[in-house]
Please model this.
Amino acid sequence: MRLLVIEDDPLIARSLEQALTPLGNTVDVFTHHAQAREALQSGQFDLVLLDLGLPDGNGLTLLAELRQRGDTTPVLILTARDGIDARVEGLDLGADDYLAKPFSLAELEARVRALLRRSQQRADNRLTFGPLAFDAASGVATLNETVLDLPRRELRLLESLLLHAGSITPRETLENRLFGFGDVGSNALEVYISRLRKRLDGSGLRIRTFRGMGYRLEEAAS
Amino acid sequence: MIQVEGSLKARLAVWLVVTVSALGVLLLVEAYFSSQRAAERAYDSQLEAAALTIAEAVQWEAGQPVVEIPSAALQILATRHQERVFYAVLDADGQAISGNLNMAIPREWQRQVTLQPTWFSETHRGTPWRLHGRELDSAGWETQDPVQIWVGHTMSGRDALAEALFEQAVTRFVIMVLVAGILMLLAMRVALAPMRRLRHQLRQRDADDMRPLDTRVPEEMREMAETLDSLFTRQRESRDALLRFTADASHQLKTPLAGLQATSELALQSEHPETWRQALADVHDSAGRTSRLAGQLLSLARLRHAEEEGTATRLDAVSLLRETAFDWAQRDAAQGHDIGLAALPESPQYICGEDWALRELLGNLIDNALRYTPPGSVITLGAVRHAQTLEWYIEDDGPGVSAEVMARLHRPFERGGRQDTEGSGLGLAIVDSIVRRHAARMQVESAEKGGLRVRLLFPCLTRHEEG
Amino acid sequence: MSIRRVVLAWLLGALAPSLAWADNPLIVEAALDREVAAPLLDAFEAAYPHIQLTFRDRSTLEVDARIADTNDPPDVVISSAMPWQMARVNEGYARRLDSSAAREWPAWAKWRNEVFGFTFEPIVMAYRLDLARHMLPPTTHADLHTLLTQQRGTLRDKVTTYSPVRSGIGYTLFQQDARYTTRFWDLVAAMGAADANLEANTRSMLEGLSEGRYWLGYNLLGSYAMHWAQSHPEVFVQVPQDYSLVMMRMAFIHRDAPHPAAARAFLDFLLGREGQRVIAGETPLFSVRSDVVGPYTAQRLRDQVGERLYPIPLNASLLAFVDPSRRAAFMDRWQREFRRLSHPAPAPSAAATEPRIDKRAQR
Model:
């Protein structure tokens, strides 16, 4: 993947480059808007990490220009400003995610991965997370390239969790997906979750429960 | 925002014009009538003089009154203005002894004149006349009948005199108004001089000069000057507070930075990778804490900033709580704890507040819970609707605090009786500020499972307010 | 005919045919000898060819009566009977004249801008050459009195003056004389003693002088006398050297004038430079205006006679002269004085020589 980092602080820029390159990405770093604008016009990137406060202009202007050109490259905004207004304005202008400084590198990596995966999925219509994959077209789920033979509800549950992989899938979303809007018992969802957990046992993936909120498909190590 | 609304001079001028106009109308009406009266008096006395002159010429001859009209009497009657003149001398029966115009004197007037000399206004053949009649008691050898003498003239002289007098009055009035206007302008300049002086002094001031004013002002401006002084005082206090806060903040930030410096310095001097690793871990932790401290300081500054007031909007407290919980549950810091949501009200619950402040409030409480409980502790957030209030609560199953500490807990800069844990002590101060800003109440109590429960009670928007 | 007049006529004809100036009549009722005034009237007709002037020469009494004739009022009224003119104006029969000529007219010769004294006619004594052969002709009132007293026999029946009863002018002049000095009554008594003949007008007196019936005339209108003397060398005119009364002919526009525009034009002409120039140059009426040059001007008269000219004041005091009771008292006294020396016994009503005239005729 080819990543563009627009960040004027050299320490952060170097950290970003060092953190993202090992994930198999090519990272281009620019410290000024003017350079970045040129690079964006000439080259094709898979993700842009945009710092809003640059010495020669406001990052939001650059974002607006990008979207006006019809460029749909995912953009992750990085900023020290954590005001809700700046966040809303950025998202309104077409940013895909927003991360306030200071941030932990782990969180940044997770966000980047999610954004890349989302754009990848948009591209090939396949949901993947680690060894797990789901082809929406054929409705076939595979774990380590092995086809998982799953009942219909478990398959839908897996699809939903994969769709939100790395973040919490609210339990209401899952219930609606599995049972429609009908009234179901409070334990029904938990039953399917525990069945799916057993299938994923030992695969390096797990489903974590967030009490009262929902479930998250995550790598067992984290 | 200063909006210029007219000028004091214009206001004064309008008042002056209105007052002078009203007064002027009164004065001119009065002047009109008084000049009419003056002209009437002046000319009436000429009528009287003419009548007396004629009276002088009345004599009795053989029992009959005889009068040889004196030319002078007629000239007096005619006046400088060459009025047309009338005279008649009547005997006791009202018969004319002499006279020049066929102007009949009504009986009623003749009766009045027997009592006292009288003046009448009369229109004869389209021309207004002023008549005067007086009775002369004259004695002859045979008879003692009274004789009435009537004189009169047209009124052009009266009109001209009245007009001239009125014109004089008008001229005097106009001059008076002009002079008053000029004096008023001068007076305004003099009266506004202290204001100009004050303006000059304010303009001369340095931007950061917050000393009280040193000037002389008249009584009317005392209040304004005092208000300015108190404004300067408040600005001075606010600036001092800002300086103190900056000093505090910089001190607060310096401490962890000094730790960072020391740690990294030691690590650089060491040859052992194990020491490096330990130092790096310390540096990482400390940097995180410092970041958090900077964020909290910023929040505090924002909270104390007066201008941020008034941005409160109508918010759904349930979804706000849910979003914040989702946000925190996924953070790295929360991975060692079990953060969960209790069952929430199904419908939105609206309160009035500032979105960022309420997120900050919850964030600080969750952060505190994460910090002051051992890993693995269960932290639960919930919302309950009461009759008048909406309650957010956050409870944990950690060790809790003693009753004595509990009482002091809601005071700022208290660290729950412990000095061992990391944290600035600013968290609760921020919470306290936000709670007060939202007119909410905060209760800290022991949870059922032995941990701490913090309850926040917000006033609900009524159905009417929601609409 | 001057080019200017042709142009004016053409302009009037071209621009204002509807004005019908050509048919504009003007009726002037005047106590003024047509013969004397002829040059003035000719000049007016020449200046205003489109106005048809009707000039009626009448006695003062007739003129006065015509003023009050509401059925057929005249346009302009001219009379030398000053008190009666004044009385009519006071009654409101005059119309105000607002023109520059009227405004500039001297204040002592106008009243209310309604009536204007437009001539300046001295009152004179006239004598026949025969008088000078017998005695030194009188030059002052005192001279006359002395002469009448000392030469009573010679002058008996040879003296003439106005009848105050039959002539308004005469009455006015005597009234004015009496106002100046009580010695006037001595003069009246002296004239009575000399059996003075009382005439109704100046012309009769002048005719008597020319015919030789009279040697000496008192209180003649200077204008007529001077005009007469030019053609009758036997008559000499003497302006009294102590004081000389001056009579003004008074003209006004009638309130109900049927042709007010023409009347205004006429009066403006009378008062204007042109009319006054004609008066000064071609009539013996004497111009009032000081800016007019000619043989007959008030200014020239003053230069000759000095400051002893006493114009009869044109103001409200004149009204006293027409007061009936005052007039009656004056007449009574006149009769008494006139007879004092010839008929020493007082005769109170004494209408023998002078029939009392009823009140209407006095006007």
User: Anything to note?
Assistant: The interface with chain B takes residues 82-84, 101-102, 104, 106-107, 167-168, 170, 210-213, 216, 222 of chain A (CB under 8 Å). Chain A is about 40% helix and 25% strand. The mean pLDDT of chain A is 84. The helical segments of chain A are 10-20, 33-42, 59-68, 84-92, 105-124, 152-163, 171-179, 188-200.
